[in-house]
Amino acid sequence: MQIETVHVPLGDRAYDVRIGAGLLASAGAEVAPLLSRRKVAVLTDETVARHHLPGLEAGLAAAGIETAALALPAGEGTKGWTQLARATEWLLEQRTERDDLVIALGGGVIGDLAGFAAAILRRGVRFVQIPTTLLAQVDSSVGGKTGINTAQGKNLVGAFHQPALVLADIDLLSTLAPRDFLAGYGEVVKYGLLGDAAFFEWLELNGPALAAGDAGLRQYAVRRSVEMKAGIVTRDETEQGERALLNLGHTFAHALEAATGYGDRLLHGEAVAIGCGLAFDLSARLGLCAQELPGRIGAHLQAMGMKSRLSDIPGPLPEAQGLLALMAQDKKVRAGRIRFVLARGIGESFVAEDVPQEAVKALLDEALSARG
Ligand code: GLY
Predict the structure, then answer these.
(1) What is the reported pTM?
(2) The domain 4-175 is classified under which CATH number: 3.40.50.2300, 3.10.20.540, 1.10.10.10, 3.40.50.1970?
(3) Which residues are known to be catalytic?
(4) Average predicted confidence (pLDDT) for the chain
């Protein structure tokens, strides 16, 4: 398969997302046009560094580019003030200048943290995203949301800072554990559900072969997801309206993640997949979409071997009222109203501010009681 390009036309912040196999090896040729001198600083994590840093260094060296790299601890805990300070000071120690380039090599944690470090370093240096997880390739590396978590919550400190280039190397997905791959697939399904019924049908047909490793299918799924995200971000970069549709399933997901401790019990993409199912359940319950749609979505997630219901989450969960309280803390709450992305059909989502809390509570009561 050829390398494909999705352009994100944001004026003087426009950039390309390059998608395909072998991009790590050709990273030097890809980034060279952006460099004012043949030196880059790479931020990564220790796990990704073991798998992919030598490949990136070789790819850059092939174009005569020197690399300095800092590997931070792997995991969500890195996405905070301590490692942000460490990364930013390290970039200064490397004498990273205004015209230099920072490379983020990793999943969502590294992409968000390195992007934010680049945003605040010398009031903004350019950075390149090289996402190494499916979730980062289809979602977090595109669109310029960067930031860290604080004691008060996730992603509450950050900046919009668009990358100068994104290199989504499909080969890197083969080192992911199946569970992490499928968690990222939760975000892929989200794109079909929020805005492209034909893509969802394609996923129903091709999802299992894609998960089993078919590179062509993987490339198509990443490209279609990135095209959709690029379109939405171009129309609404700072989430004044349409970009909120990317939060389909996320109001439920964030509450479930908070309830399960943001850890191994429930990965973000797993929570999003369950949350998308609940958003369609709620839409059906409110008479907005056909009654059979939640079952169809659940059937696809189950066919993929994914968690699809609250009963698939191990360990105790709070009662409906407790989950509602967690939703009320979400940063998407406006003037005390919980916002949901609901749907009139597959691919037909919209933001709803006026969902009756009793309907959400009744849905959660029923879904929780099915846990037995
Ligand atoms: N991940 C949602 C967004 O980028 O807006």
Answers:
(1) 0.96
(2) 3.40.50.1970
(3) 123, 145, 187, 229, 239, 243, 247, 250, 254, 268
(4) 96
HSE at residue 365, side-chain half, CA atoms within 13 A, is 7
Interstrand relation of 165-169 and 126-131 (parallel, antiparallel or unpaired): parallel
Instruction: Determine the 3-state secondary structure of 243 from DSSP.
Output: helix
- CATH number for 178-369: choose from 1.20.1090.10, 3.40.50.720, 1.20.1050.10, 3.30.365.10: 1.20.1090.10
The 3-state DSSP class for residue 320 equals helix
Please report the atom of ligand 1 found closest to the CA of residue 232. Answer: 5
Distance 283 CA to ligand 1 centre (A): 22
What is the distance between the alpha carbons of residues 370 and 372, in angstroms, rounded to a whole number? 5
The binding-site residues of ligand 1, defined as CB within 6 angstroms of any ligand atom, are 139, 143, 145, 243, 246
Alpha carbon distance 303, 317 (integer Å): 25
Token readout for 276 is 């998308």
Measured CA to CA, the distance from residue 166 to residue 149 in angstroms comes to 23
Q: State in Å: Cα 238 to ligand 1 middle.
A: 10
Is the distance from CB of 281 to CB of 363 less than 8 angstroms?
A: yes
Question: Length of the chain in residues, anyone?
Answer: 372
CATH 1.20.1090.10 domain position(s) in the chain? 178-369
Q: What is the pLDDT of residues 249-298, one digit of tens each?
A: 999 999 999 999 988 999 999 999 999 999 999 999 999 999 999 999 99
Tell me how far the alpha carbon of residue 115 lies from the centroid of ligand 1, in angstroms.
14
C-alpha–C-alpha distance, residues 323 and 4, integer Å: 42
